[in-house]
Specification:
Two copies of one chain form a homodimer. Chain A has one domain: Divalent-metal-dependent TIM barrel enzymes (TIM Barrel, Alpha-Beta Barrel). The first copy, chain A, contains eleven helices and nine strands. In chain A, helix 1 packs across helix 11 and helix 4 runs parallel beside helix 5. Chain A is α/β, with parallel strands linked by helices. In chain A, strand 2, helix 4 and strand 3 form a beta-alpha-beta unit. The relative contact order of chain A is 0.13. The interface between A and B is medium-sized, with 35 and 34 residues. Chains A, B: This is Sugar phosphate isomerase. Chains A, B: InterPro entries: IolE/XylAMocC-like, Xyl_isomerase-like_sf, Xyl_isomerase-like_TIM-brl. Chains A, B: Keywords: Isomerase.
Chain lengths: 265, 265
Amino acid sequence: MTVKQLALPELVDACRELGVPGVGLWREPVQAYGVEAAAKLVRDAGLAVTTLCRGGFLTAIDAGERAAALADNRRAVDEAATLGTDTLVLVSGGLPAGSKDLRGARERIADALAELGPYAEEHGVKLAIEPLHPMFASDRCVVSTLAQALDIAERFPAHQVGVTVDTYHIWWDDTAPVQIARAGAQGRIHTFQLADWITPLPEGVLNGRGQIGDGAVDMREWKRYVEAAGYTGAIEVELFNDAVWARDGREVLAETAARFVEHAG
Amino acid sequence: MTVKQLALPELVDACRELGVPGVGLWREPVQAYGVEAAAKLVRDAGLAVTTLCRGGFLTAIDAGERAAALADNRRAVDEAATLGTDTLVLVSGGLPAGSKDLRGARERIADALAELGPYAEEHGVKLAIEPLHPMFASDRCVVSTLAQALDIAERFPAHQVGVTVDTYHIWWDDTAPVQIARAGAQGRIHTFQLADWITPLPEGVLNGRGQIGDGAVDMREWKRYVEAAGYTGAIEVELFNDAVWARDGREVLAETAARFVEHAG
């Protein structure tokens, strides 16, 4: 998503040229390219697919919407398996229209995972609940902290359900380091993502993430926390930023790789 | 601030007409009107000044900036005392330019309160640390949760330093009810403010608070929490919203009073 301006073949080429060993993919461009074709493209390039983003949106009350969400998440698991990644990131969903019941919405996520966890396991895929910054609590993700994510994940085996640790969403939270240790002790850190916090936030606040090094987040500090918790997996950089997307994609990818080495290497 | 389009005499008239018994004031319009004159205006109308907003911005590293902030906060205490309110709300301040050290910034707030707390006490004023929503953590307030605010406040006597409970900033936090109980048990709930959470957030995210009843927050639930914690003080409605400010101020005040009765009465 950091370089969504690149078509998949360009992305794969650019990763190979830069020595980037793996890439997290999003469903929409993969579906547009064809899931099997994308899997072959990435596999032939020797590139690992670190995660697939994203499943989730599991908070609907309406039975039909809920069934549709579950079906879509099973498709996302299938796509992850086809792509050869073992991790599907979940953005859990916001409050249904008119609802003020955060607790109920969080319970419906747990109910859905009771169905999706075993399905994912059968396909060799782990689900990674991503707490999103509290500014997304009403309209995108009612899971706002690692503690909340782990409270849900702990109801399931770790190889079915864990969490995503993303610096952008948790950097402000002084309890997050303890929660990272908790997640690590249970084997539930399923992926680790970097983005920096910059202001002012844009209207709608979705596409204002900063290139690493540009903002308030100490990347090395968070990397130390996840490493101390036993995480040895890939580190992804996930920027949603209109200004970044308007630039040349290969240049952004090269800059991102350089910033990674500088701030998190 | 909810009706900042009203000059102070209009505000006082409108409150009297509507039977609103108290008003939280902001420093800028009070200073513009004259502090003594504002105090007389409100006192003559029989209107209570519930709080003065705001002191704070105590995170500077630079010695000169820090001394200026302390001096300004002492002036804010003086103004509160002149206005006859016992509560000064503190917005603690963001990260200094280039800093990524949230912990250090929070410690500098505590250091400043060690100087300001006794000064406030001498003037009959309590300081109320306001945790602001985590989306303000870098540029406005490094204190993002009630737990963080209480961790600082607890170092001082409750009649010197307590907290502000504002639904807009904490509604997403499932640990906030326990923290409200903690604050109440210590006599540290110094004020309680209402605003609703609506999306999409505007650019800069400051002026997007919703009229109560328009958003995701269950006002009665939060009112129950603070009342169960022993709070018997005023309840303020504090909206920052460009659309609200563009409307007729008396109409907004009447609407706000009606919404208060409907959603929090």
